[in-house]
């Protein structure tokens, strides 16, 4: 009976199963020797194990490194960043949103501090590929997209191997693990937010995404637009709200209800650790190069805009001629090379109902990364763009350009080639620490 059920399931989801296997196989292959070992920055593993040991901070005696950890000291009744000589009362925490540690919790319970976050990231990447395909298929079935199954498969593979997702999914490490998991939760969120038809589920996955990557908080705009003015006659829909606002208010309320449990727990955890609802730890980074800027301008400031725009759009590959060598700037690389399809988003063939809502979501999700104190260093390409890359690919999916168009094919080929280079060439924290 179980065998029959499995065959039926595989028959119904054979495309998803094949995509998962292909994604897992390619990502694991490019992960190479990393796949078999824990990364050098397994922060979420240590956070999960600390919870299992009954403590909310991390034991400083077991820290694998001092890179991007938050250290909190109580001084005159106030929580401040640790400075100078470390004291016995100092408390250490992961300086990132905590939901990836929640996801890893059952596996850390089995493997402890040795849990392999690298192979886990590869599996998460393969699942994210499947989630994006399922989202594309859902939009096609709703009539929001005219893409065929073959085109949806191609676009899902493009996310996996033709964007910065590729190199992020093969590394483990706290920074990249969160980016990849954020893509997966974004797909689940949008799937439930379209049409605002499943507000509780949309709220739940929205909270998961936000508590994985904080800039995804701004993606809540997508649900708000779908609930209040989904289009295409947005002006009339907004005017009608004054006469009949209860259905929209109900959807927003259910969305908030779905998001509230995790959001409340995260807020309480932040208050316990750092004394503030919205503080995830970067204001308490221990002995970090970015602390000077944070103390001078804060985490977000107009002063950072210039260097982030440069990292996102102006950084080019570094070419040396004697000897011939191609390199990259670890501060960033233009999106016109890492995601060349951007050009076609600016000149869409069609502008269907979702077009404006997706663009507005991209715009608000991009703002935190552009005004943030850090470009994402060290990285291959502007990795913060992964927060809104699924929305950009959805814009292409509904934008009307044929995947057989020569220009589109050239852009896809360039994107795959550049990101193949990134997957092979990027040397980050793991390589610096372990000399792999």
UniProtKB/TrEMBL annotation:
Organism encoding this protein: Stigmatella ashevillensis
Keyword match Amino-acid biosynthesis: no
Keyword Amino-acid biosynthesis among record annotations: no
Name used for this protein in its record: Glycosyltransferase RgtA/B/C/D-like domain-containing protein
Segments passing through the bilayer: 12-30, 92-113, 119-140, 152-172, 200-225, 252-272, 330-347, 354-372, 384-401, 408-429
UniProt KW keywords: Membrane, Transmembrane, Transmembrane helix
């Amino acid at each position: 009976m179980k065998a029959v059920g499995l065959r039926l399931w595989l028959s119904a989801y054979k495309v998803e199963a094949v995509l998962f296997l292909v994604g897992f196989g390619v990502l694991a292959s490019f992960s190479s020797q990393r796949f078999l070992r824990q990364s050098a920055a397994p922060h979420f593993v240590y956070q999960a194990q600390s919870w299992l040991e009954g403590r909310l901070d991390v034991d400083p005696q077991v820290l694998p490194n001092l890179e991007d950890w938050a250290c909190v000291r109580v001084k005159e009744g106030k929580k401040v960043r640790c400075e100078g000589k470390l004291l016995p009362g100092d408390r250490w925490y992961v300086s990132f949103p905590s939901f990836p540690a929640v996801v890893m919790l059952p596996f850390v319970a089995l493997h402890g501090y040795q849990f392999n976050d690298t192979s886990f990231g590869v599996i998460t990447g393969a699942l994210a590929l499947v989630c994006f395909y399922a989202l594309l298929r859902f939009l096609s079935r709703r009539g929001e997209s005219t893409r065929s199954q073959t085109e949806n498969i191609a676009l899902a593979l493009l996310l996996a191997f033709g964007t910065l997702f590729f190199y992020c999914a093969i590394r483990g490490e706290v920074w990249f693990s969160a980016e990849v998991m954020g893509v997966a939760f974004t797909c689940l969120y949008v799937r439930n937010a379209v049409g605002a038809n499943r507000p509780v589920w949309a709220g739940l996955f929205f909270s998961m995404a936000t508590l994985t990557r904080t800039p995804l908080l701004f993606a809540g705009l997508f649900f708000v637009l779908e609930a209040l003015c989904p289009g295409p006659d947005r002006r009339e829909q907004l005017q009608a709200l004054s006469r009949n606002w209860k259905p929209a208010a109900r959807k927003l309320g259910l969305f908030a209800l779905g998001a509230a449990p995790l959001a409340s727990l995260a807020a309480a955890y932040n208050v316990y650790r750092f004394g503030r609802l919205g503080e995830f730890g970067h204001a308490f980074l221990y002995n970090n190069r970015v602390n000077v800027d944070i103390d001078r301008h804060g985490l977000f400031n107009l002063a950072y805009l210039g260097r982030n725009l440069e990292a996102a759009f102006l950084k080019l590959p570094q070419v040396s001629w004697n000897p011939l060598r191609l390199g990259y700037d670890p501060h960033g690389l233009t999106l016109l090379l890492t995601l060349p399809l951007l050009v076609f988003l600016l000149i869409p063939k069609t502008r269907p109902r979702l077009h404006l809502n997706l663009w507005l979501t991209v715009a608000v999700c991009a703002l935190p990364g552009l005004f943030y104190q850090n470009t994402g260093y060290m990285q291959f390409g502007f990795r913060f763009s992964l927060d809104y890359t699924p929305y950009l690919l959805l814009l292409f999916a509904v934008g009307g350009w044929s995947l057989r168009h020569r220009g589109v094919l050239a852009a896809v080929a360039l994107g795959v080639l550049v990101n193949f280079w990134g997957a092979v060439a990027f040397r980050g924290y793991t390589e610096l620490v372990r000399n792999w």
